[in-house]
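Appendix B, example 12.
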Amino acid sequence: MNWRYVRLSVIILSSALLISTCEKPTTSSDADDSGLTNTLNDNAVGSGTEGPVHDYFYDFESDVNAEFYRFGNSRFDFSYAEYLALFNREPDRLTFHTFPDYLLDITADDIGSDVTTRVLVDSLTQFGVILEDSVSLFSSQFKNVESMTWEFDAQPKLQRYKPNNSDWIYSDTTINYKDTLDWLVYAAVQDTINPSGLTFVDQSEWVDSTYFLHEPAQKIYTKTFQFIRKVIGSDSLMFRVNTDCNGNGQWDDAETVDIGNGIWDPEEPYYDIDGDGTYDLNEPYRDCNCNKRHDDAEAFVDSDGDGIYDVGESFTDVGNDSIDVAESYTDLDRDGIPDPDELFILQEIPNQLLVSYDQYPDLNQYRVLINIYPGDSLITRNGIVYHDILKEVPGTETVSRPVNDVDTLITLYTNRVIEHLDEVVNVSDYFITKTEWSGTDASSGGSTYRDYDYLLFKQDDNIYKLTHPSYFKPPGFAGFNFLTWFTGNWSSDDFEEGFWFEKHPVEEILYYTPNGLLRDGERVETDTTVVTPVAIYQIRNSFAVDADEVTVPAKKVTGFLNGQGSITCYADTTQIVSDYDECPSMDTTFTDCFRITREMRMTMVGSAVEYGERDITWLVKNYGIVRDEVYVRWSEQPETEEQWFGYSKWELRKYQESSRSNTLLGRMVNPAHTVKLSRLEDEPGLGNDPYQVTRTAGLQRIGKRGEE
């Protein structure tokens, strides 16, 4: 047995981003710790469950690529399965990357020129080899909406139409083809050189690796699939909130007094669950006059004694007990004129009870649509007819898949590694990480967008984050309307005009960890007064750690090999795919978990306006963040309880991590170097994306970017 070793000298010059400034910040702060909870110096807390923070948060010296499902505020309460069933597509995705930064100096004399030299093995090399292969094409999977059924099990205010979906529907085909290539076989001591430490190899034993070289052009295989989809009609009636509050079938300007509509209004339609002929509070109804309660028919003089209102009989015309603003409308034809069929606004919840007046204009007779099937129609109280509330839509999908045109198959035999001794290397201060996401912006006509955040961390016993402090502006600045928060009618755009940012970054503690340990029951509170040129703010922070378990759609194995060369999905055994990533995600439960709750309350001294952020993060050993929920609130109306709104939620889909040694060879070709915030756009390895100032709660973006 011949032993041989290769030794490399390595100099680590930089492994992180370091940012410093000589200018003073624009804020000053005075902290008062009296009466605040702090368990960091306690010998024991909680149940005694604890774990090193570097096992539960990210190892910034490794390449981490975590993929999350991203739920916005309007989708916050949906689970992955509910979202998939209702919208027939997966939620938007977000990725989290780390970028370990190394600069290596490898001495050629220490390596030896013959270690990686390849020798062609003539006896095993073949030319003109025929390779038989195949490519599988799959259409997009979807579920048909077979019907919509009103949900009676929920509380009356939470009832809505629920879809009854079919099983997953898709089509597939397999195309067989042949490729001609050359098979070259080489031998070498080692393929690559480990850039640190001492490596021993056995030259009498071999390990083989095989890879392909491809032609620049690819072969494209295409298949057109045909299908029928059953979907909610384009009218989306169950999502329409009626704005024709006086029921006269035409647009009306704002009232100055509460008036009637000049026509007799029957009892608002409802579904009589118990069949007693009278409305009960647990029964769903159609709110025709927008006053959020069920109203009886207007009183009238029954001249002919038939018990039914007839045109010409006198009646008492009443309003809806409120002075209505100008009626909103959705301009379907974009002509700037509110037409009778445009007196509505759309919402994202299908909770508008559908009613058909089949004997129109007789408004005493109506039919409540508890169950809706494809092809069903209805007539509104104004005589407008809508067809195909659920409709069948024929369609096609053309799927193409490129296949590499293989030119050469290379097999490389290298000596087996017996032992490797690592040398200890040190790392520097700040690490660069990045979140990236994309989606469709409904407010801009369905255009697609992409966005990202750089997140900068440092770790010793605690986890630190570099951030630009930001504060909300006083009422009236830049037109920011706090009243939108009282009603929950807010969006991320409100943050864009509502907050200002400090120019200089500061270091904040993201996670407190005594001696680097997360401990169940840890509690830390701080209270700080910050004086700025804009206003004085009191900022109260709390930090809590609790042992927990969590369930997220991140199951690693989503299917099984079915013995036919393909994969059957666990979530739907009728779905056959060629790659596990094509299967729907499945829930998995992690028990080795800490739940970290960070809460911030910012109060403007003088105006007493208060803004709050609550970030709840679930950390799992060897996975980092698996779920992260952000809630926000503004000062509520007087004598109103606190209302925290779900702003954004991440749930882990997939996690990948590779250690530092797996990436060093690439850095020999493109050595890393210290970078500055103002020059990040010059770094191809970071995507050439410039640094942008944003407000974040933990790792999540709050609103849009700020001014640098």
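The first strand starts at residue 3 and ends at 8. The first helix runs from residue 53 to 56.
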